[in-house]
Amino acid sequence: MKWGLLGSLLAAAVALGLGGCSTVGYYAQAVNGHMDLVQRARPVAEVVADPSTPEPLRERLRLSQRMRDFAVAELKLPEGGSYRRYADLGRNAVVWNVVATPELSLTLKTWCFPVVGCVGYRGYYTQARADELAAELRAQGYEVMVYGVPAYSTLGKLEWMGGDPLLNTFVNGTEADLARLIFHELTHQVVYVDDDTTFNESYATAVERIGGRLWMERHATPEARAADAQRQARAVAFREFTRRWRGEFEALYRSSQPDAAKRSAKAALLARLRSEYEALKADPASPLAGFAGYDGWFARANNASFAVLGAYNDFVPAFERLFEQSGRDFARFHDAVRTLAALPRAERRARLGLAP
């Protein structure tokens, strides 16, 4: 999975002085975790000039700054201080998100907070805290997914603290992935709608994909473009395959069958899902042929993991159409999204050509 928006909660925590008693502990870990991140961050120029900085990291940080400039000049994303500093957290994720769904539903459980509204996850700066919540939710009958997040956005609201830094959790990924992540997270600073995670994430994912393609076309080597094309073909195959299966599960859960029959049918669907996935890997004509990168996802697949995929992907084609309708002009596109964001939820979806 991609990256969360724990930063929206940080902004609320700062605004509210940690809020009411029921959320004090959660806000406190969010603020303390982010403050640790801020204190570790150093200006990129300083890290690059430091003789102790390994050369591969130095080159990657220089590349990130070219991507940051590209985001402003070409994608019309905010300048600000974000991704102009670097922090090594000494771990492989910045936060761990917990998502949960009922046993017979693909609807994410939501948690609601003052100022920022309701979100379909909770994020923790230690995996142990995330696992504790996951265990509690499973005991209540929820299906749960815990996943590490390489980055999150503070929505531009904490620029006075230096903005969002580059992190060791993502800076050493592929060139294409680094570009897409920077573009995705900066997009959250343009538009963020309370209580509409799918709108927010699909918009950022659309910018990530369009901007990532432009970066690779204009700046990457032919070898890097070829490698990324293969990776993107696999990602498309994965999305199409899981989207079809998500539809199967949604149809089952909406049916009038009794719960016992739904549970039996669900188990059969999961078995077929995994069997078809193995067949795809064995098919020489499939982009997934011989590729094991999604094995872990399918081994752990449940309602929660399917629901998260929907949040990041469902509206992306609609936003890509809106980009084309905006004449492939990013400034006009962002303005069009701002207009949509000001509308009531149902009207936003109708304007995008989507069901309420």
The largest sheet has its strands arranged as 1-2-8
- Could you say which overall geometry the principal axes of the C-alpha atoms support? globular
Biggest sheet overview: 3 strands, mixed
Multimer state: single chain
What is the rounded Rg? 21 Å
Helical stretch count?
A: 14
The end-to-end distance, rounded to whole angstroms, is: 25 Å
Strand content: 5-15%
Given as residue ranges, the uncertain stretches (5+ residues, pLDDT < 50) are: 1-5, 14-22
Average pLDDT works out at 91
* Helicity, as a percent range: 55-70%
* Quantity of strands, as a count: 8
Main attributes of the structure:
356 residues; mainly alpha; 3-stranded antiparallel β-sheet; 14 helices; 8 strands; 58% helix; disordered N terminus
If you had to describe this structure to a student in words, what would you say it looks like?
By secondary structure, the chain is mostly helical. 58% of the residues lie in helices and 8% in strands. The protein contains 14 helices and 8 strands. The longest helix has 33 residues, at 222-254. The chain is globular, with a radius of gyration of 21 Å. The two termini are 25 Å apart. Mean pLDDT is 91; it is low at 1-5 and 14-22.
Mind sketching the topology for me?
Layout: H1 6-16, H2 24-40, E1 42-43, H3 44-49, H4 55-73, E2 85-87, E3 95-101, E4 111-113, E5 117-119, E6 122-124, H5 127-139, E7 143-149, E8 166-167, H6 175-187, H7 197-219, H8 222-254, H9 259-282, H10 295-300, H11 303-313, H12 316-325, H13 330-341, H14 345-351
Parallel strand pairs: 2-8
Antiparallel strand pairs: 1-2, 3-6, 3-7, 4-5
